[in-house]
Amino acid sequence: MKEVEVTVFVYSIHPFDAHISAEGAEYGITPQNINKIFREEEKPAKGVVVKFKLPDGTKKYVRAD
Question: 50 pairs with which residues across the strands?
Fold first, then answer.
């Protein structure tokens, strides 16, 4: 199965503020669950990789198990 990469731009970590792309919304990424996905308390849907672009320019990837 091919993975889909969804980009989320993180503006601030404390308090958490991020922009979810329209593509992210198609794959179940919502304002209600994005912080939990970022903290890895919740996983994205199978086949979805969430790429967080952090304010310092680094990237963090979270994928389903």
Answer: 6, 62
